[in-house]
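seq:
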Amino acid sequence: MRTVFILAFVANLILLAVSVGISPERVAIHFGPGGTPDNWASSHNNALIMTGVHTLVFVSLFFSTKLTRIFPRKYINIPNKDYWIRDENWNKAESILTKEMYLFGTVIFVFMFFVGLLALQANLSTPVKFREDLFWWPFGLFMVFTVYWTIRLMTRFRIPKEELR
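struct:
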């Protein structure tokens, strides 16, 4: 999952680079109701800002579990914390967190890639218009996945049945 997460991030950076090469100098960076643009920026500034956003998301998710090694475990908030922060359980907890962050990050980047494609298509069309009809179903899927992922994360941190005896 780590490799897929990294590849999804890199795919977004490649899309940004391609976008700068083929977009007009001035691009819509935000769209209002009906997909009409309501904020503009230079193509280069937009790519720079979006590169920063993608990198911040990547670094946050990639290193989030590694940061748990720096901070005292008592400050880490996970379900059934008293069980999972014990020395004998911590490696398993850290492994679960890492895999889940990579999974969620991958889905975030897939969604961001799709939105990036829609924004590119909008900026290449005349007149500039964002295809809301193509946005809402992936957004809905992303939100459903987020709920699923949250429930999944909570259930992965249940205390194992053999420990409850």
